[in-house]
Amino acid sequence: MELQAEEQRTPASLPAERSPSLGMASTGGPGGSRSLELSERGAGGAAGGAHNFYRGQVSPSASAMMPLKWDPNLKVIAEGYAAQCVWSHNPTLGDTGENLFAGTGPLDLRVAMEKWFLERQDYDFANNSCDEDKMCGHYTQMVWADTHRVGCAFHLCSSMVGLGWERVSFLVCNYYPAGNYEDVRPYVEGDWCSRCPELPEM
Fold first, then answer.
1. Residue 127 CA to chain centroid, in angstroms?
2. 13, 24, 92, 106: which one has the fewest Cβ atoms less than 10 Å from its Cβ?
3. Pairing assessment for the beta strands 2-6 and 97-103 based on DSSP bridges
4. Rounded to an integer, what distance in angstroms lies between the CA atom of residue 199 and that of residue 188?
5. Burial of 91 (0-12, 13-18, 19+ CB in 10 A)
6. What per-residue confidence (pLDDT) applies to 98?
7. CA nearest to 98, candidates 83, 116, 84
8. Phi, then psi, of 182 in degrees rounded to 5
9. How far apart are CA 137 and CA 130, in angstroms?
10. CA gyration radius for the chain?
């Protein structure tokens, strides 16, 4: 589990806090903070779709990577933790993985996902290693082949414990089962989906 913080003054060209294209719904929160709900059809669907898009972009290709499905229970866990506005990982997750992102501008979900994925530039698949002083854990959790459920939530925090910033957009994504096991690659290399299990019909 890793954290990624970004302090930026967001340019006016970026989407506003309540972008209709992401289906965000604003609700009141304590201390002047707000929760923005991610639903399966709205921003939650965008989050799941973005994860699966990036999972299909790995290099070398993966022989068996499970598609991620949106999990409302993981979303509820993410919502509860995001509302705490604490810059550290949830200590109660057990076998659930977690990625965190924080920024001082309005959250653009697509930008956050892309930043996680671009950590692959610092990851060496052959050696299963990350460049010194770099973070790769967001990327490897995103593309962990056996992970098959995801749920995300974000909260607009008036302040953030552990960062000292004000008006922080805080994104939490939870994954089941967790990835990032030591000395284990995130997936098995091979022709794309050549060893994918057959998914049962819904």
1. 24
2. 13
3. parallel
4. 19
5. exposed
6. 97
7. 116
8. -60, 135
9. 9
10. 17
Question: What is the overall mean pLDDT for the chain?
Answer: 81
pLDDT class of 21 with cuts at 50, 70, 90: very low
Round to whole Å and give the CA distance between 46 and 109.
8
Q: Are 152 and 47 in contact (CB under 8 A)?
A: yes
DSSP, residue by residue, 124-136? ETTTTEE-TT---
With beta carbons less than 8 A apart as the criterion, state whether 186 and 143 touch. yes
Q: Is 28 helix (H, G, I), strand (E, B) or coil?
A: strand
Which has the higher per-residue pLDDT, 44 or 62?
62
Which token pair is 9?
């003054």
Question: Per residue in 58-76, pLDDT tens?
Answer: 999 999 998 999 999 999 9
Instruction: Measure the CA–CA gap between 85 and 105, rounded to whole angstroms.
Output: 15
Would you state the pLDDT for residue 37? Answer: 53
Contact predicate 63/165, CB 8 Å: no
Tokens 């290399």, residue located: 189
Report residue 137 as tokens: 């854990």
Peptide bond into 177 cis (omega under 30): yes
Q: pLDDT tier at 47 (50, 70, 90 boundaries)? A: confident
User: Which residues partner with 185 through β-bridges?
Assistant: none
Mean pLDDT, rounded, for 73-97: 96
